[in-house]
């Protein structure tokens, strides 16, 4: 029993030192690496009005309608692959497509670099 007691007393400074060394931060550890600064969505910078065709009986009845489009905003902020998803009247399609193709966007960014992104755009057309 004395041997165990003596061994414990003699070895206890080693355990305390090891615990103290383990709790000190190491200078060799590098700072955490930044993985991403995040994604910023595309935003409209400029738009042009939709030039509606002359009043015809099929479009005379509406005052405000929504046209839903799918498009891709490229790295330069230009709309590409513009397609109408939902339109209340086919006679509005070409004027809406022509107007949206002239829109300009602030491109989306990933890690502060412009990237092309798909976009769903809801356009309210009022008469």
Reading off the top of the CATH hierarchy, the class of the domain at 39-126 is best stated as: Alpha Beta
SSE run: HEEEEHEEEE
Architecture per CATH nomenclature, i.e. the level-2 architecture of the domain at 39-126: 2-Layer Sandwich
Uncertain residue segments: 16-24
CATH superfamily annotation of the domain at 39-126: TonB
Helix content: 10-25%
Give a verbal description of the structure.
The protein is an alpha+beta fold and 127 residues long. The chain has a domain at 39-126: TolA/TonB C-terminal domain (2-Layer Sandwich), CATH 3.30.2420. It is built from two helices and eight strands. It has helices at residues 2-23, 93-100; strands spanning 39-40, 43-46, 64-73, 79-86, 104-106, 108-110, 113-115, 117-126. Mean pLDDT is 78; it is low at 16-24.
Task: Give me a quick take on this structure.
The chain is of the alpha+beta class and 127 residues long.
């Amino acid at each position: 029993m004395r041997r165990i007691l003596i061994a414990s007393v003699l070895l206890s400074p080693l355990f305390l030192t090891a615990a103290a060394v383990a709790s000190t931060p190491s200078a060799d550890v590098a700072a955490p690496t930044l993985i991403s600064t995040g994604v910023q969505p595309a935003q409209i910078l400029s738009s042009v009005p939709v030039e509606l065709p002359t009043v015809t009986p099929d479009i005379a009845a509406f005052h405000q309608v929504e046209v839903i489009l799918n498009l891709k905003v490229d790295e330069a902020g230009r709309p590409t692959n513009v397609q109408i998803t939902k339109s209340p009247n086919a006679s509005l399609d070409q004027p809406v497509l022509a107007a949206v193709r002239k829109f300009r966007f602030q491109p989306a960014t990933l890690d502060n670099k412009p990237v092309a992104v798909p976009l769903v755009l809801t356009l309210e057309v009022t008469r």
